[in-house]
Amino acid sequence: MELPQLERVRLRRCDSAASVPQFCNSPTMIVMVGLPARGKTYISKKLTRYLNWIGVPTKMFNVGQYRREAVKIYENFEFFKPDNEEAMRIRKACAAAALKDVAAYFTKEQGQVAVFDATNTTRERRTIILTFAKERGYKVFFVESICDDPEIIAENIKQVKSGSPDYADRDVEEAMEDFIQRIECYKSSYMPIDDERDRKLSYIKIFNVGSRYLVNRVQDHIQSRIVYYLMNIHVTARSIYLSRHGESELNLLGRIGGDSGLSPRGQKYATALATFIQGQNIRDLKVWTSHMKRTIQTAQSLGVQYEQWKALNEIDAGVCEELTYEEIQENFPEEFALRDQDKYRYRYPKGESYEDLVHRLEPVIMELERQENVLVICHQAIMRCLLAYFLDKPADQLPYLRCPLHTVLKLTPVAYGCKVEPFFLNIEAVNTHREKPVQLCVSARWELPSANPRSARNFQAEFDSHVCVSTHNPHIFLDLEGLGGELRQRETNHARKM
User: Fold this and answer.
1) Other Cβ atoms within 10 Å of 467 Cβ, number
2) Which residue among 45, 206, 327, 357 is the one 20 to 30 A from 392 at the CA level?
3) What total number of domains does the chain contain?
4) Does the pLDDT value for residue 98 go beyond 50?
């Protein structure tokens, strides 16, 4: 008996979409340990971002934020003195509230990993956490950050002070002095994880932000992934430049995928990119490309050595390679509609999904974390995946991040985020962005945007207008999915890319 159409579609969607990974056979708590200004929150945020990016539902619980909600006005370091009984009662209550929320996250939100961001400097506090986890069947992995380098500590204090709500209205010198005194309050009761006494615990110790590591009793796959990631990150100031290849011949025809060379405008962009990079005066810049002609031709104009990564190749569209979206809609109407229903997990027949790309790009991310200044010349789907990692964008937004042709994005990692600066190089190009459809009917037919060219000047002006400023750190962040219809009109509306 033939299945009804909707049932066939449901089964086809299950076959074509990559499955959601389950990395944990039981929920895992990552528990930070260490004095203030040792980079715990920095590590927590990066780790949370990484795990979510690879598909592990993860949430960070910052006990300091619970304390700020309980005590609206922070006065001074005396709140953190070990003999301040009233403050100690409040701090314990805040930690208990955070643990309660961890349990709710695991049971009600199907979370797999919780990052418990607090000092946890006493054996008593860590025992409470271990007991809490054991009673509920959670695994615990400690991450202790130890630092005795005065220069690193001073820089961390400066960054923490500048971004902490506790010191939002404080004089710089006053804030620095108070924070140093706060650290002294913790030092008197700090008991590091003991290599002998705590040998049955699972943990990693990070010394001086990565100069040395000590790893003990890694229990499972997710903990090994965490260790691998933490051993790759660093805090050295650097910038990562992301650019798509110049406009290609297939871009002009509105065809997806393929391995065509650059169009005349794409060649102009390659020359403009070389001039731009030279003007940036970047020290020890490395250049990465994919194995595809259009990225290699773009890099050749730079006149420097470049490294080719197969992992940076564009998403494989399978049977839809080198077709236009109109042809896909005509020949594969169900596939066309199914991809719109779940663009992140949908896999082209004999091709790839965005989820596949994320896993393919994990080694690239690890190497980017190890490097200093890098220019990555890549493709639209690849650039979206990389941006989603650095800007902490969820999977449902990733396939719709705007990555226009002939634009360079300069990413500069900062204490609690990533500063983004866009540079449009004034070379017109086709628009390859496709909006997220509102309709999600399997038999639906979508209208393609009409051509509406915009000048380079208008393109840059509109691009520059879509920035937002972090309320915690005064750095400019690009609102990549808030550009709306304006960016769609900036380039010539001709092709509809992945």
Assistant:
1) 14
2) 206
3) 2
4) yes
| Host domain of residue 405 | 240-490
Q: Is 353 annotated as a binding residue?
A: no
Tell which of 230, 251, 266 closes a domain: 230
Q: Which of 15-24, 68-77, 341-350 has the lowest mean pLDDT?
A: 15-24
Helices (H), strands (E): how many in the chain? 17, 14
Distance CA 121, CA 108 (A): 29
Place 162 in a pLDDT band, splitting at 50, 70 and 90. low
212 in a known ligand binding site: no
What span, in angstroms and rounded, lies between the C-alpha atoms of 481 and 343? 15
* Residues 215, 120 share a domain: yes
List CB contacts of 292: < 8 A, sequence separation 6 or more. Answer: 245, 259, 313, 314, 379
Q: Is residue 413 part of a domain?
A: yes
Give residue 485's pLDDT band: very low, low, confident or very high (50, 70, 90): very low
pLDDT at site 22: 62
249 is in an annotated binding site: yes
pTM of the model: 0.85
- The residue behind tokens 């961390």 is 156
Mean pLDDT of the chain: 86
Is residue 479's pLDDT more than 60? no
Q: Is 36 exposed, middle or buried (0-12, 13-18, 19+ CB in 10 A)?
A: buried
Q: pLDDT per residue over 31-70, tens digit each?
A: 999 999 999 999 999 999 999 999 999 999 999 999 999 9
246 is in an annotated binding site: yes
Positions annotated as catalytic residues are 245, 314
Q: Is 346 helix (H, G, I), strand (E, B) or coil?
A: strand
Question: What percent of the residues of the chain are helix, what percent strand, and what percent coil, each to the nearest 5?
Answer: 45, 15, 40
CB 319 within 8 A of CB 349: yes
The answer to the question of residue 19 being in a domain is no
Nearest to 466 by CA among 401, 406, 377: 401
Q: Classify burial at 169, counting beta carbons within 10 Å of its beta carbon; exposed 0-12, middle 13-18, buried 19 or more.
A: exposed
Residue 237 — pLDDT band, cuts 50, 70, 90? confident
From residue 184, how far is each of 36, 48, 189, 410, 485 by CA, in Å? 9, 29, 9, 39, 53
Note whether 304 and 170 are same-domain residues: no
